[in-house]
Write a structure and sequence with these properties.
The chain has twelve helices and 15 strands. The chain is an alpha/beta fold and 388 residues long. The protein has two domains: 151 residues, NAD(P)-binding Rossmann-like Domain (Rossmann fold), CATH 3.40.50.720; 206 residues, Dihydrodipicolinate Reductase, domain 2 (2-Layer Sandwich). The protein has a nine-stranded mixed sheet with strand order 14-13-12-11-7-10-9-8-15. Strands 3-2-1-4-5-6 form a six-stranded parallel sheet, sandwiched between helices. Helix 4 runs parallel beside helix 5 and helix 6 runs parallel beside helix 8. The radius of gyration is 22 Å and the shape is globular.
């Protein structure tokens, strides 16, 4: 395929961001924005005033999908709509890029993944932090075995501070019925994805979520979770939208040392020998393996949304030969993690992973029934300053 005609479903904050780089002179090679779809008249009016006349406007994503004017769809709607729009696009034979998260609960994400496999088109997820140089290097270091077997992970990601005005900006925000979750569903899908992408998926979890602890909202805005991995390793994940200044620090301890990623830097504390071997064989009581420390330069990569879109378009153009940086089927993993965190809190118990999708859906619906979605869609915010 020489040129990929792209349509964007949902042209709010993120959707308009995609419009911006796709319509610039140095946009995505081999791609052209040909249509947008949104149910809100004011956003279609924005498209009329801001975009070229040769970009078609549709009053629903479904109308755009059925129009024959697009080969591929970028989905940038509220979370609940990601899977149904993706499924409609797959059934129409279109390629799909979905914003994070893949969905709100694993049952709907599994349906989306099944539709993707059946369609055989190119399915990617906007997990742009996989494209950052430091995260790519972290993945490379851990996968190479240089760190040895993982023993412990600690991820503190509290730099997602949000004022009350952020939550008040849209009637659907921070409600169970409109958004399906808080910091885990909205801010942390990137971090949950990186955690499992680099360190692997845990087998079970115990977590403590606090709902409306810092803000006047229904959903979680403060979370601490403890996980166990298949090899017996353990991990802790901490996040909130209420800390200022916040922290973004991932620490991974293995049998051959420790890697710390913070502030855009990677530091490798490498033991001179296996810690487990030293522990068993050292005869003098006190003591520990010798350690050398070095800063690791990042791999190449800017982590931009345009980078992930460019990769997706290239894979479409060459028939899937280009490996996707963020395959859409991977999206279920971060949903598994945040579903497990919420379900553990709701049931006050340990949760096995994969989660019981039926139980999670049942518990979620209890909260949806009493959810208070505010009237009006609210204002469309400039989200460019929120990328982390």
């Amino acid at each position: 395929m020489d040129e990929v005609r792209i349509g964007i479903a949902g042209i709010g904050g993120m959707g308009s961001n995609h419009c911006s780089y796709l319509t610039k002179d140095n946009g995505v090679p081999g791609a052209r924005l040909t249509a947008v779809g949104d149910v809100r008249p004011e956003r279609l009016e924005w498209a009329k005033e801001s975009l070229s006349d040769d970009i078609s406007r549709f009053d629903s994503p479904e109308g755009m999908i059925e129009s024959g004017e697009v080969d591929a769809v970028i989905i940038a709607t509220p979370h609940y709509f990601h899977p149904p729009i993706a499924i409609a696009a797959f059934e129409a034979g279109l390629h799909v890029m979905s914003e994070k998260p893949a969905g709100v609960y694993t049952k709907q994400v599994k349906q989306m993944n099944e539709a993707a496999k059946k369609a055989g088109t190119v399915f990617s997820l906007m997990l742009n932090q996989r494209a950052r140089g430091e995260t790519r290097k972290l993945k490379e270091l851990v996968s190479s075995g240089e760190l040895g077997e993982i023993k412990r992970t600690n991820y503190i990601i509290t730099s997602w501070f949000r004022a009350q005005s952020y939550y008040d900006s849209g009637g659907w925000r921070a409600t169970w019925a409109g958004e399906g979750g808080g910091v885990l569903a909205n801010q942390c899908p990137h971090n949950l994805d990186l955690w499992q992408w680099i360190c692997g998926m845990p087998t079970r979890m115990r977590s403590f979520c606090y709902f409306g602890k810092h803000h006047e909202i229904e959903v979680e805005d403060d979370v601490t979770a403890f996980v166990e991995y298949p090899n017996g390793a353990t991990g802790v994940f901490v996040t909130t939208t209420g800390d200022a200044p916040g922290t973004n620090r991932l620490e991974i301890t293995g049998d051959r040392g420790k890697i710390v990623a913070e502030g855009g830097k990677i530091t490798f504390h490498r033991t001179e020998e296996s810690a487990s071997k030293f522990l068993k064989e050292w005869p003098n009581g006190f003591g520990s393996p010798g350690v050398w420390t070095c800063d690791i330069p990042p791999a190449r990569g800017d982590g931009g949304h345009k980078t992930i879109t460019t990769n997706w378009v290239q894979s479409i153009r060459d028939g899937g030969k280009t490996e996707l940086m963020a395959p859409g089927l991977d999206g279920i993993n971060s949903v598994e993690l945040f579903n497990a965190m919420l379900l553990s809190t709701w049931t006050d118990s340990w949760i096995d992973i994969p989660v019981d999708g039926d139980l999670y859906y049942e518990e979620l619906q209890k909260r949806v029934k009493t959810s208070k979605v505010k009237e009006g869609a609210g204002k469309t915010m400039d989200v460019s300053g929120s990328f982390q």
